[in-house]
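## retry 2 of 3
previous attempt timed out at serialization; input unchanged, resubmitting
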Amino acid sequence: MKLPLISLSVLLLIGSVSLKAQNLIYNGSFENYTGCPASFSQIDSVLGWTVPTDYVSTDFFHTCAPLSSLVGVPVNQGTGYQFPHSGDGYAGLFIYAPAPDLREYISTELITPLVANQCYQFEMYINVLNGVKYTSDDIQVLFSDTLISGLQGFGVLNYTPQIENTPGNFPDTLNWTLVQMNYTATGGEKFIVIGNFKDDANTTIVSFSPNALAATYTYIDDVSLTLCTGIESLVDENNFSIYYNQNAQHIQIENSTGKTARFELYNMLSGKVIQTLFNENTEINTSGIANGVYAYRIRIRDEIVSTGKLLLQ
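## retry succeeded, writing output
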């Protein structure tokens, strides 16, 4: 059947859009499973997901699990309370634990192998369990052309991940935090492993609940890997300078982009404490904010263009 030229053009356009939008992570929102979780360490009941070690310890949380299981949603683990970023389920793992260098990971096989020199955008959303002492920005992704499995123990994996979370992009206990990273493939990568590949000495932790368990436990939801759009970043992080003036009790921001940006300040326990728009140099009063370590983000439109930490005292 011969299609009119205009119809063929429309079909080609639709096909192009579909290709760019395809998520190469199967079941990235942890919605499909073989059975409701009944206890901890049941990530292997989630279709498409497993762990690289010989002992399954990573957790699966879902609304179908009874409260007594401690892996339900939103209430879980006795101290946890978090709705999914989307759908009904999410995963959870230790980024930093009371036992020295104890780590947990999750892994999955990509829907199709990656193409050499192609840019891919990785995204996921993370959140911190209530009831732990620390939050951490240390979470990385390893791409591999072979399945990594059967490794012994709970220690730090002896691999070098290709991409990592932006320093200063700390998750909190209230909001889901977007982790977004680009990766240029070498070609043939078929598997990914998500977790913290750094030992305790090199892991950044920030205390937000001093009397809680000396660990950071991270929920993960909505994992995706898509082709990069080809759109360049709106600004470079170096276009912003951020200072805290202790004597004047304000945060000073210098903005050389000429664009309207949004400044967001978070503490690690209660979430966002300041949000303000600005398009030039500005000062933000902090006299009413408690002392402590805070994470900040600067956004232009929906893009995070700068992140970091500030010590207010």
